[in-house]
Amino acid sequence: SSRRGGKRHLVSGAAPCVAPYMSSWRRGRAPTGRGRGRQRQPPAVDVEQLMRERQAEVQAALAGLSGCPGRPAAAADEEESEAEEAKEVEEEEDHRKEVDSDEEERVSEQVAAPDATRSAAEAATAAAEQLRLVQLAEEQERRADTAWRELKQTQRRREEEAEWERWEAEQEKRKHETRQRQLEAAARRREAEALMARSTAETAASSCATAAAARDDD
Fold first, then answer.
1. Mean pLDDT over the full length of the chain
2. pTM higher than 0.85
3. Biased composition, Basic residues: where in the chain (predicted)?
4. First and final C-alpha spacing in the chain
5. Contact criterion met (CB below 8 Å) for 80 and 3
6. Radius of gyration in angstroms for the set of CA atoms belonging to the chain, rounded to a whole number
7. Backbone angles phi and psi of 8, in degrees to 5
8. I need a surface site. Which of 30, 38, 86, 128 has the fewest CB within 10 A?
9. Going along the chain, which residue ranges are E strands?
10. Burial of 79 (0-12, 13-18, 19+ CB in 10 A)
């Protein structure tokens, strides 16, 4: 028999003197089912060793009681009840440890989550900064290329303007030279005309003098 909750129960198929020494493992114990959806097996117990120890204690008690089954059975029931209580205490302790382990795991996950979020944010910030630097370098390159093209255009325009100014200067010089030559030619022409007029006048005067002298001779 076994004792639970103050009641005694006979174990089927066992003699009265043997039943008290049968371990509760013969009756079986369902898993507690505690823990987050997981079923936990009770801790391993060396049942045979426990039975041998109990049988030795019972035999020692029987040796002094001249075959009375009541007292050793009661002692065995008390020992079995104590063993079951110890086993339940051990199971409760295991369950508490499991709950503590689950809580530690949950806290660890909660602590790791901000770290992962912070790492992702730092990576995103670094990527954005890298993109900004690349875009800045591209913009500076575009500005430098634009400035170079504008400089070349300015130089080309200045060269064209200088060339145009040189051409205009040459044209003006040619005009001046032409005008100078024209003036010189006009001066020479006027000088020749004056010389011709003077020669003509001298010739006419000489002719008049000759004619006058001839009249005088007559």
1. 74
2. no
3. 1-10
4. 210
5. yes
6. 69
7. -110, 135
8. 30
9. 2-4, 7-9
10. middle
